[in-house]
Design brief:
The chain has helices spanning 16-23, 76-88, 108-119, 133-142, 149-152, 155-177, 186-200, 207-216, 249-255, 288-296, 315-325, 364-367, 395-408; strands at residues 3-8, 29-32, 41-45, 48-52, 65-68, 73-74, 97-100, 104-105, 204-205, 221-228, 262-270, 273-275, 309-311, 313-314, 329-333, 343-352, 355-357, 371-378, 412-416, 424-426. By secondary structure, the protein is of the alpha/beta class. The protein folds into 3 domains: 3-100 and 203-266, Adenylosuccinate Synthetase, subunit A, domain 1 (Adenylosuccinate Synthetase, Chain A, domain 1); 104-200, Adenylosuccinate Synthetase, subunit A, domain 2 (Orthogonal Bundle); 269-426, Adenylosuccinate Synthetase, Chain A, domain 3, CATH 3.90.170.10. The model has no long low-confidence stretch (mean pLDDT 96). The structure holds guanosine-5'-diphosphate, 6-O-phosphoryl inosine monophosphate (IMO) and magnesium ion.
Length: 427
């Protein structure tokens, strides 16, 4: 089983970090291929919590080589901060952490641009994490102003590039920001990023040939998605998405490893739904039930601390994302959070323009008009956090698991009943 993928099937925060951590036991490499420090992946082992944004979850497992692939956008101060956090926690970070020389670099002007655009009165805000992700990917695709990690290692070249780029950025940002905008100084920025380059240097490699060699040698690679597939720029609820392919679609372009090598795609789902930021969310609960899910599930953003929007499980949305990811098996997470309810709802179809539909509209403005059609299932009303086998679960909890698998049309391989690694049931 050489290459596996862990992908979120909702709007992010499905507890991918926990699943990646569990699967590190069976792998040699963990590769991040999309996004950047907009992600927030949590791992709890023996009561000890680790939170990772930019670094692959593999960094807390010493036998793993962790790779930040070419498709990731890297904010160097965040890289340094996370590495020193790990060092303080007693975890050695050396050449077990590699960064692609072709990954793009986030600069402070990206964050400034995002702040000004998201804050503009004329814009319908996406509700981004404000980590500079969108503007950095825009520069990558626009080509003229994108800077790759390799360029940080060549001081004179970087200085020349930044002089040209910063002149352009200052003009654009002054127009957006008005008189209060403080222009960036290209030479100061170059000094700062040359120093970042020196810190990154020991980790920088051309990671694509390295990963392809690993595949040839039969090494086992685990691809760790950031965000959820419904935030995928092509397949998600556009325009309320992130700026990368957060589904399996991003693996090939974001790591250089052809997806033909994938032998197992694990789709991670919460037992309910959450979303952070703007965009349509048919099963959202703006009432006490939504509030109760948020409180018990501790549904506050790992990165921004924003309260997550909460709602019932949406099987229409998950069927859609499971299909375009080619998911083999599901991991059902946070089931314990639902113990508080007497009955549970699952969205099995939508009503759009007076008609029942079972397919997911790909356009946000159409999805916003969809009303959920629910099936009601009995709750189990008791704590399940100590369950370690399916047989330990109340019959109603087993029925909920079976029914979700049935409606989505996929087997459920793992059920999670608490944040700790140990609170896991192999189904
Ligand atoms: P990710 O971005 O997909 O890795 O998910 P996050 O880490 O942002 O959010 C998932 C949150 O749920 C984290 O705080 C986890 O520690 C926590 N968590 C994971 N699995 C479970 C579970 O089964 N039950 C509960 N109650 N919490 C869980
Ligand atoms: P993990 O990996 C949940 C959301 C933001 C916003 C939209 C675009 O922890 O699951 P961006 O900053 O990426 O341009 O914001 O995407 N978003 C996430 N939501 N989990 C994430 O990552 C997210 N990363 C981005 O809230 O709605
Ligand atoms: Mg998260």
């Amino acid at each position: 089983m050489p290459c596996s993928s862990v992908v979120g099937l909702q709007w992010g925060d499905e507890a991918k970090g926990k699943i990646v951590d569990i699967l590190t036991e069976e792998h040699d490499f963990v590769v991040r291929y999309n996004g950047g420090a907009n992600a927030g992946h949590t791992v709890v082992r023996d009561g000890k919590t680790f939170k990772l944004s930019l670094l692959p979850t593999g960094v807390i497992s010493p036998h793993i080589t962790s790779v930040i692939g070419n498709g990731v956008v890297v904010y160097p101060p965040r890289f340094t901060e996370e590495v020193s956090g790990l060092t303080k926690a007693g975890l050695a970070v050396g050449d077990n952490l590699l960064v692609s020389n072709h990954a793009h670099v986030i600069f402070p002007y990206h964050m400034e641009e995002e702040k000004l655009i998201e804050g503009a009165a004329t814009t319908q805000a996406i509700g981004t994490t404000k980590r500079g992700i969108g503007p950095c990917y825009q520069d990558k695709l626009g080509r003229l102003n994108g800077v790759r990690v390799e360029e940080l290692l060549h001081p004179d070249h970087l200085r020349n590039r930044l002089r040209a780029i910063v002149t352009h950025k200052n003009r654009v940002l002054a127009a957006l920001g008005g008189p209060s905008f403080q222009p960036f100084d290209a030479d100061l920025l170059a000094d700062e990023y040359v120093a970042h380059g020196d810190r990154l240097r020991p980790h920088v490699r051309d990671t694509t040939p390295l990963l392809l060699a690993a595949v040839r040698e039969g090494k086992r690679i685990l691809f760790e998605a950031a965000q959820g597939s419904l935030l995928d720029v092509d397949h998600g609820t556009y325009p309320y998405v992130t700026s990368s392919n957060s589904s399996v679609a991003g693996i090939w372009s974001g790591s250089g490893v052809p997806t033909r090598h994938l032998t197992r795609v694990l789709g991670v789902i919460k037992a309910y739904s959450t979303r952070v930021g703007g965009g349509p969310f048919p099963t959202e609960l703006l009432d006490d039930t939504g509030e109760a899910i948020r409180r018990v599930g501790r549904e506050y953003g790992t990165v921004t601390g924003r309260p997550r929007r909460c709602g019932w499980f949406d099987a229409v949305a998950v069927r859609h994302s499971a299909a375009f990811n080619g998911v083999d098996e599901l991991c059902l997470m946070l089931l314990d959070v639902l113990a508080q309810f007497d009955s549970l709802k699952v969205c099995v179809a939508y009503e759009l323009d007076g008609k029942r539909i079972e397919t997911f509209p790909g356009d946000a403005f159409l999805l916003a008009q969809c009303e959920p059609i629910y099936e009601t299932l009995p709750g189990w009303g008791k704590d399940i956090t100590a369950a370690r086998n399916l047989a330990d679960l109340p019959a109603a909890a087993r029925r909920y698991i079976d029914r979700l698998g049935e409606i989505v049309g996929l087997p459920i391989a793992i059920v999670s009943v608490g944040p700790d690694r140990a609170q896991t049931i192999r189904a």
